[in-house]
């Protein structure tokens, strides 16, 4: 029995050692993608490409996380600005009212405007803090040092309605394919995709 177990583990070692870089990348990508899918059974690999990854502000986990937060805050900012504009219009409509009801509507609208303005100022402060953080990371990163592999992975998966669609994702892993360093969607329409994160960082560091 011991010999059987020994031979089993030996075969696993041989298989593992026999994998080339592309096969390891595909295996790594599949495992990481399945972790974030609602229906992992719907996963279907389409294509995997691998390239060397180098240290960069665009693949730095902390900098990209800060840029992601900025993107989220921008969305909140837009939503709050819409609310502010609506309350401003309401305040203008009731500004000339002389009856008690109209005056109360005007007062409430002005009150809402003040509260929204406070929230907007807080968001602006948070955005500036994240921008400063990215600037500081950019100053300290020793760029263009080999740090592992960039895996460009295309796959199909089902959404919440069971409809399958193509998805492109970027994964950065260490040179041994053991640890995920960063994961981002390659979707131009995604406000938090790699291209948008890159644009936010470019805007912060002045590129």
Rg over C-alpha atoms, rounded to the nearest angstrom: 25 Å
Largest sheet: 4 strands, antiparallel
Low-confidence stretches: 1-16
Arithmetic mean pLDDT? 89
Strand-residue fraction? 15-25%
Give the beta-strand count.
4
What is the H/E string? HHEHHEEEH
Walk me through this protein's architecture:
With 207 residues, the chain is α+β, with helices and mostly antiparallel strands. It folds into 2 domains: 26-59 and 144-205; 62-140. The protein has 5 helices and 4 strands, in the order ααβααβββα. Helix 3 (61-94) runs antiparallel to helix 4. The longest helix is centred in the middle third of the chain and has 41 residues, at 100-140. It is elongated, with a radius of gyration of 25 Å.
In short:
58% of the residues lie in helices and 19% in strands. The protein is α+β, with helices and mostly antiparallel strands and 207 residues long. The chain folds into two domains: 26-59 and 144-205; 62-140.
Keywords, separated by commas or semicolons:
207 residues; disordered N terminus; single chain; 5 helices; alpha+beta; 2 domains
Produce the secondary structure layout.
Layout (H helix, E strand, L loop, with lengths): L1 H17 L2 H16 L7 E11 L6 H34 L5 H41 L5 E13 L5 E10 L6 E6 L8 H12 L2
